[in-house]
Amino acid sequence: MTRLLLTGGSGMVGRNILDLCQRRGISVVAPRRGELDLLDYAATLRYLRALQPDLVIHAAGRVGGIQSNIREPVRFLTDNWDMGRNIVLATAAAGTKRLINLGSSCMFPRNSPNPLREEDVLSGTLEPTNEGYALAKCAVARLCNYVRREDPSLFFKTLIPCNLYGRYDKFDPAVSHLVPAVIHKVHLAKQQGKADVEIWGDGTARREFMYAGDLAEAVVFSVDRFAEVPDVMNVGVGEDYSVATYYAAAAQIIGYVGRFAHDLTKPVGMLRKLLDVSKLKALGWQPRTSLHDGLRATYDYYLGSRAPDAISTR
Asked: Which of 55, 99, 141, 225 is deepest in the core (most CB within 10 A)?
């Protein structure tokens, strides 16, 4: 691999991939938005033609938690579709034969039986709370399939990660996912001496979360074994926990000893999302970071971060 292009290098997933590549001595080009605007197809095509990468990893996207998805469905649909469409079509037009597109577990129908198999995508109704984002991710994954169908020399593949957390996460409750939101809420509760922390719903909804550093390992693993990777493949830990468990685990690490109060009027999304990772295991890969170790590393990052996308805690 002599020239690898990574989109979304400033996001949580992209920065973890860059960290891993740096440790392993892998050369990656990861342009900022000022260098490559994925919402502009013509500019994206010019960039691809000039760089001529051997492989593209598409990790860019507009991401956020349940609140931001409910608040801005138009932007989550259009931005993610436009970015995905432009990078996929520009990669093909520029003559690059290999692309890894990162999807999302939101692509699965809300009522699919767990664990969720790759074949279940587009087999039913999507979860309404993040439908816009999910539609865009489904469409980009299907576009990769269509491109390959029309030109068998193009190998455009989609990895579908489970929910993620870790270093470089966003902790602002307005945009964050469950785990960083939990860390932020519980930390503030301890800091402010609050007697209880609010949980949306009754806490029984289950989620599968993987440490973002492990996803980076899976992506590089897939690059190294590109020919063996299926056209669509789940990437997860193969185990899920209740929302209440994530709160309890975070409280233990942070040292919060208060209570949890349940707001049953708030939306909770899908009741369960657990990926079938049998294809990934068959290739010989599995994550290495336990929930406790991942939460500890993420909390340490939260405390020490001075990044503009993290909430100040001091």
From this structure: 141
pLDDT digits (tens, 9 = 90+) for 67-121: 788 899 999 999 999 999 999 999 999 999 999 999 999 999 998 899 999 999 9
Full residue range of the structural domain in which residue 79 is found: 4-169+209-238+270-289
Distance in angstroms (rounded) separating the CA atoms of residues 91 and 98: 8
User: Cβ contacts of residue 197 below 8 Å, gap of 6+?
Assistant: 185, 186, 189, 247, 251, 256, 258, 259, 260, 261
CA nearest 68: which of 56, 59, 77? 77
Active-site residue, from 41, 47, 133, 168: 133
CA distance 157 to 169: 25
- Burial tier of 314 (Cβ tally within 10 Å: 0-12, 13-18, 19+): exposed
For residues 48 and 94, is the Cβ–Cβ distance under 8 A?
Answer: yes
**256 included as an active-site residue:** no
Cβ-count burial 205-215 (b if 16+ within 10 Å, e if not): bbbbbbbbbbb
Domain-embedded: residue 285: yes
| pLDDT tens profile 128-161 | 999 999 999 999 999 999 999 999 999 999 999 9
Distance, in Å, from the CA atom of 180 to the CA atom of 202, rounded to the nearest integer, reads: 19
What is this structure's pTM? 0.92
CATH number at residue 60: 3.40.50.720
